[in-house]
């Protein structure tokens, strides 16, 4: 059976060169990078090389890159680390309504610790208005966080304009810091920390053909962040724990490859994305695109299919070899409706019919055609079963 | 999908008794699309027994499988028997449901019960 992976937002396949680069650090050079003896030399060198590769991908200095186990950890470190370190200067945080759970749940934890969080709404496409962010800033705001691109609806946020708006507000204060969750963007969109104007940035290797278990937080020189994981002196004392050298090496190679190939990938993805969007919205009735029509990730297709539910579509698609994701309540382990679809004003019933296709560099137009062969009959079948569908 | 038992998947792929009964003797609807699960059960009653049970469902794999299983179990049951159907019985017949899907099995039996109540209410009205 044809197997089509359209769930790159969940995780991506590893590039062969990434796997090749990692293996020696699992087989021969397994030493602890902190060891002063010979066994630490190769791992340490490899890790620092990876640090430079990641820095290069986002236009930062190697010393500004801190390795974490995931994008979620980088997000936690950014928001909690910045908030707690600068607590005496203020206890107010600003985030957008469509941030990833690792940001919003971290914000909730900070609220329990006495911080105040302002959640800035988005428009029906999921776009944040820079003026709304600027208006939310107070004298006691220490951190603003808006994601670079959203994993559920694909919308790309105006980070440059947001950073600009904050600078215009005050050129003297260095607070609030600006953080962006670039987990869905790094390696896929052009990401340069100087151009963006951010103080903190999160990324994760498994989003751009690198391994799971390796993420990074960019902390601009001079920015103060409290460590979340205390202990030894790894990562400049900011994140303790023996590093996952193999995964970090993989992350570095993935970053280097992404820097070289990103534009080619984009050129390949956009026609596939646009074709799938066009076919879905014209060949199946009552299907709605979510997120911004043009300011969206190059491989991202998110829709809501009316009258039926996401998990049942997902199951049928999986049986036909097509792997996708959904934002429906039933697909969420927490049994909660998607906060992103709620934030863009999607009616709750319609939000249940969410399907998210995230296309990758190895997908082809044939894959898109195949999806359009198998999905319409699935939709029809489920609609015939639905008490909400009054069609033929 | 390893999350669901083979029996659940069977009922999901080949649900029994899907449809409406235009001249139903009782109709029961529970849940709503806002929550992500909605089931409507339609029944025909003959001599105190369920002579036909059909359903329509908006919901996930578990919801569809549960509706199908409830409709199958209920066929031919007396109204009293059918009212006794509970979520554990349905889940057991399906070889178990993931813990976060147990509420679906509750919804199914509730919808059937509501359809029977609807029938009984109509009976009471017509005999007045």
Looking at this protein, list some descriptive labels.
heterodimer, A: about 400 residues, alpha/beta, Aspartate Aminotransferase, domain 1, Aspartate Aminotransferase, domain 2, 2 domains, 7-stranded mixed beta sheet, 12 helices, about 40% helix, about 15% strand, globular, B: about 130 residues, alpha+beta, Sufe protein. Chain: A, 5 helices, 3 strands
Strand proportion of chain A, as a percent range, falls in 5-15%
Helix content of chain A: 40-55%
Q: What percent of residues of chain B adopt helix (DSSP H or I)?
A: 40-55%
Instruction: Give me the CATH architecture of chain B, please.
Output: Alpha-Beta Complex
Quaternary structure state of the chains depicted = heterodimer
Main beta-sheet strand count, sense and barrel state of chain A: 7 strands, mixed
CATH level-two architecture of the largest domain in chain A: 3-Layer(aba) Sandwich
Order of helices and strands of chain B: HEEEHHHH
Categorize the overall geometry of chain B: globular
By DSSP, the count of extended strands of chain A is 12
Structural class per helix/strand content of chain B? alpha+beta
- Strands of the largest sheet of chain A, in order across it? 2-8-7-6-5-3-4
CATH class categorisation of the largest domain in chain A = Alpha Beta
Could you say which overall geometry of chain A the principal axes of the C-alpha atoms support?
globular
